[in-house]
Specification:
heterodimer; A: alpha/beta; Rossmann fold; 2 domains; six-stranded mixed sheet; 32% helix; 16% strand; B: alpha+beta; Elongation Factor Tu (Ef-tu), domain 3; 17% helix
Chain lengths: 305, 428
């Protein structure tokens, strides 16, 4: 038989892609109002790309939701708008500024203030406003220790909270998205991917990225052991060291808490090389994780991404 | 669609191996995983710094590599592991996904969960205690979940003077028990010391008598290519793609993940439960049409004839369809702490992309998983209990035995009131 001679080898990227597409389709099928969280960062770009493949040649059966702190890199916003137009996708934006104006959250004071933690309230408000019952996120288990225990289909109670001790077991390919009224799910199709897998997939699929990910000269300020890009929202304080360096960003989030790394990596091959030899974890540049040893766990329980 | 990812560099083309680790509380499981990550250079400076700081704070003698795998605050405070955690590492040969399951009371549930997606299980045995009840339980679960490859890692060899006799004795004990199991086709015993790193990544200099592979070498080289079923073509329909656009006006694609066998354009297929037959028109990819699709790839199939097909239907070959029945026999593992299973209990049964109502017709027996003896006088399942039941469903299921196909032979039971997943099932 011909079929027995065939090796049917499937490499790791094809397996991860197939799994992620399965989860995306499962989300569309099991939920009434899903949305895909889209920040313009590389993980959400990969998610949108996978979603496009999952439902091709139809359009995405769910909108993209951007929780916008108002402190974005301009490059991210340009990329977002261009990509959304190309996908012909429906983009919804939840503004942290609105949550602040409505008195829903208190903005942190002082030069070191970050809106990162405030995003949770805006996210939960957006979920409530649009009645989303599942939000697809690009979170990966390799990113952080609390995320290592996250399910593909992660159940949240009426308050958007995650209870790590009461998670549903997930076996085989079977995902239980049943819920009571008011509850919702976060769904993580990239759970089994590592940072390296994401970069390799971007290369294999030739997915364009915002140029922030590639090395460039930029004015940065040293703050709390991180190098932050100077801007309207990151204003150097007296005594802080400001200089221009050749840097790139390993993750892209809010400008107030996303640190740059020194790098000459100007194309995907050199980035993959750099990731392979990196001495610090990817989120090592994120000051939001460094506030305490359980910073991520605490934020996740509250309903963070 | 996926297998056409252009591969122009070696590092883009790695195998993927999923494994689970089983051991009792003090067998050194977390230390072993920490050692694997550390010695294969898959840890980062900031992680090591955090672990060093915590070890110091707790007053540990060595830098405690087990801390690399500790997740949640409650676990670090109590020094235990609560739930299945997934770890990732890669060598130039393979990418690995570890399902790390804790050794305490909820162990069975967690190990069953971790084992359900694993190709291989590492069963840890403390060289001082040898094969104990829990070892047998771990081997039984690995076998029940149809894990074909098992590494018997005899740990803490440094505490038995690296004795060859002791190692051989333990391996013999294990083999004697394992001879009663069915699915394990490949069993590799390795003497290790996770604490000191002997035979984990680097070959031990303390055990010259051992001529076999190190743990990592075996993980990198064990052949898992034949674990998928490429004989029985199975395609559970997950989602129907209808673009309703001018460009793709009449397009009607069936999206899903191949659960077995191979599909090609022109193949005769049968759609169940309706029973209609037709041919495959095309296998649609993102960048054009594909010549074939096989497990475990996700794809979109179009058919020659317009047939009414929806989620939960199964596409297969007319000469080799899955079984179709409203009565199934299955082994189940009970997961719920809050409720019990007894005869006549009703649940929602989720199988592939299908969902039906189900009633437990009869409890045949439960298994004492330490002795493998059948228990026939107690018909109630509580947390972590395993046994055989017969189930009647509200609509026919399209299934294979779990032994033949892990995807079309597995299901979960869901409590309709709480929506919790209360049991895992494997069709006999």
């Amino acid at each position: 038989m011909e079929e027995e001679r065939h090796s049917y080898q499937v490499n790791h990227l094809a397996q991860l892609e197939s799994e992620a597409i399965f989860i995306l389709r499962e989300t569309a099928a099991q939920f009434e109002r899903p949305a895909l969280l889209f920040s313009g960062g590389k993980d959400s770009i990969v998610m949108a790309h996978l979603a496009r493949k999952a439902f091709h040649p139809a359009k995405l059966p769910f909108p993209l939701l951007h929780v916008d702190t108002g402190h974005n890199f301009p490059e991210t916003m340009e990329y977002r708008d261009r990509y959304v137009a190309e996908l012909k996708a429906d983009l919804k934006v939840g503004l942290v500024q609105d949550s602040i104006d409505q008195g829903r959250v208190q903005e942190e004071k002082g030069p070191l203030a970050s809106r990162n933690a405030l995003q949770t309230v805006t996210l939960l408000d957006s979920i409530e406003e649009h009645q989303y019952d599942a939000c697809l996120g690009g979170g990966r288990r390799d990113e952080e220790k609390a995320r290592a225990k996250e399910r593909f289909f992660s159940h949240r109670d009426d308050f958007g909270q995650w209870d790590p001790k009461k998670q549903r077991p997930e076996l085989w390919n079977i995902f239980n998205g049943r819920k009571h009224h008011g509850e919702n799910f976060r769904v993580f199709p990239l759970s089994n991917w590592t940072e390296m897998d994401v970069w390799q997939y971007i290369k294999a699929e030739e997915i364009p990225l915002p140029n922030l990910y590639f090395s460039h000269d930029r004015e940065i300020v040293h703050r709390n052991g991180a190098m932050l890009a100077t801007s309207d929202v990151v204003v150097p304080q007296p005594g802080e060291k400001v200089e221009t360096r050749t840097v790139r960003f390993r993750t892209i989030g809010d400008m107030t808490c996303t640190g740059a790394v020194d790098s000459d990596a100007s194309d995907l091959d050199s980035i993959i090389q750099e990731v392979a030899t990196a001495r610090q974890t990817e989120r090592g540049t994120r000051s939001d994780d460094k506030r305490s040893e359980t910073a991520m766990e605490d934020r996740k329980k509250e309903g963070y991404f | 669609m996926s297998h056409e990812i252009p591969i122009d560099d070696g590092y883009l083309d790695m195998d993927l191996l999923r494994f689970t680790t089983a051991g009792s509380v003090d067998d050194g499981k977390s230390t072993l995983i920490g050692r694997l990550l550390y010695d294969s250079k898959n840890t980062f400076e900031d992680q090591i710094e955090a672990v060093e700081a915590t070890s110091k704070k707790r007053g540990d003698e060595h830098v405690n590599l087990a801390l690399l795998t500790d997740g949640l605050r409650a676990e670090r405070e109590q020094g235990i592991t609560i739930d299945v955690a997934y770890r990732y590492f890669a060598t130039p040969k393979r990418k690995f996904i570890i399902a790390d399951t804790p050794g305490h009371i909820q162990y069975t549930r967690n190990m069953v969960t971790g084992a359900s997606t694993a190709n291989l299980a590492i069963i840890l045995i403390d060289a001082r205690t040898g094969v104990i009840e829990q070892t047998c339980r771990h081997a039984f679960i690995a076998d029940l979940l149809r894990i074909r490859h098992v590494i018997v890692a005899v740990n803490k060899m440094d505490l038995v003077e690296h004795s060859e006799e002791r190692f051989n004795e333990i391996v013999a004990q294990f083999k004697e028990f394992a001879s009663r199991l069915n699915n394990i086709v490949d069993m590799t015993p390795i003497p290790i010391s996770a604490l000191h790193g002997d035979n984990v990544v680097d070959k031990s200099t303390n055990m010259d008598w051992y001529e076999g592979p190190t743990l990592l070498y075996h993980l990198e080289n064990v052949y898992i290519g034949s674990d998928q079923n490429h004989v029985d073509a199975r395609f559970p329909v997950q989602w129907v793609i209808r673009p309703h656009s001018d460009e793709h006006h009449d397009f009607r694609g069936y999206a899903g993940r191949v659960a077995g066998g191979v599909f090609k354009p022109g193949d005769d297929v049968i759609v169940q439960p309706s029973g209609f037959t037709t041919k495959i028109k095309a296998i649609e990819g993102f960048k054009g049409q594909e010549s074939e699709a096989f497990a475990p790839l996700s794809c979109t199939i179009t058919l020659e004839d317009e047939i009414d097909i929806s989620r939960g239907d199964m596409i297969s070959k007319p000469n080799n369809p899955p079984k179709k029945d409203q009565l199934i026999e299955a082994m189940i593992c009970w997961f719920s702490e809050d409720s019990q299973l007894s005869p006549r209990s009703k649940y929602i049964l989720r199988h592939t992309t299908n969902e039906v109502k189900a009633v437990v017709q009869e409890v045949r027996y439960k298994v004492n998983i330490n002795t493998l003896h059948k228990i026939e006088d107690d018909k109630t399942f509580t947390l972590n209990e395993i046994g055989r039941v017969s189930i009647r469903t509200s609509a026919p299921l399209l299934f294979d035995s779990y032994r033949r196909n892990r995807t079309t032979g597995s299901f979960v039971l869901i409590d309709a009131q709480t929506n919790e997943t209360v049991a895992a099932g494997m069709i006999v």
